[in-house]
Specification:
- The protein has eight helices and six strands, in the order ααβαβαβαααβββα.
- By secondary structure, the chain is an alpha/beta fold.
- It has a single domain, classed as 3-Layer(aba) Sandwich (Rossmann fold), CATH 3.40.50.620.
- It has a six-stranded mixed β-sheet, with helices on both faces.
- The protein is globular.
Length: 236
């Protein structure tokens, strides 16, 4: 395998990596810390083929502070479902100002979104609602990139506990540089750098999504309360 993955000619997926090459990336990135992985990423992949997403929820300041410090011109993609809490949008705007972020909003098809609102899909079929308002907007741009950077951590859910640093997800290489960061490490960094939590964290919200599917709770327990659903579908 080449030490510079940007030099590999694409084949079946947008980055052109096979399973052995992904395994080699995992082995070489495993000893690195979160910030070291981000720095390495921009030498191993073409910078303008790196997709970074953020929900601007809970403690996104940790993830975005490191990204903005290492790659100030990196665009951040934010899926605007049309159902965000006003506090989330205010938190997004605060972090944009603090870190001088360049953020692009992704939105679902207007007709489908209005249809999902009218029919209250978030109550009758939350998976379909997420598909229209979260998954499809990201899918529409994903294949323009070679690697997708997310801020998932293993301690958050059972599904996330199985994640690798690099993995292939529906035609793109998914990069989870924070996957083995502990909650204590994250919170210590936030305190050390005097970063703001999402304002609703102080009200008992540990995980914050759309208004109709989020209640106070520890971990992910406040998301889709009373339903077996624990993920919006973006990360499957």
């Amino acid at each position: 395998m080449s030490t510079n993955t940007a030099e590999i000619i694409p084949s079946e997926n947008s980055a052109g990596l096979n399973s052995d090459e992904i395994a080699a990336l995992n082995a070489s990135y495993a000893p690195l810390k979160f910030d070291e992985r981000i720095r390495r990423l921009y030498s191993d992949f073409v910078a303008d083929k790196v997709l970074v997403t953020s929900s601007f929820a809970a403690t996104s300041a940790y993830f975005l502070h490191i990204i903005s410090t290492i790659r100030p011109d990196q665009a951040i993609s934010f899926v605007d479902t049309g159902f965000h809490f006003p506090q989330t949008l205010a938190y997004r705007d605060e972090l944009i100002r603090r870190f001088n972020l360049k953020v692009q909003d992704l939105r679902g098809d207007e007709y489908q979104h209005e249809w999902s609102v009218k029919n209250k899909l978030y109550e009758s079929d939350p998976d379909f609602c997420c598909s229209i308002n979260k998954v499809q907007p990201l899918e529409s741009i994903k294949l323009n990139y070679h690697v997708w950077v997310s801020s998932l951590m293993r301690w958050q859910t059972d599904h996330r506990s199985q994640l690798e640093i690099f993995e292939e997800r529906r035609g793109i290489i998914k990069f989870n540089p924070m996957v083995d960061v502990t909650r204590e490490e994250r919170d210590a960094y936030i305190a050390e750098h005097n970063l703001p939590f999402h304002p609703m964290v102080a009200e008992g919200f540990s995980s914050i999504g759309c208004t109709h599917c989020t209640v106070p709770g520890e971990g992910r327990s406040g998301r889709w309360a009373g339903k077996p659903k624990t993920e919006c579908g973006l990360h499957y």
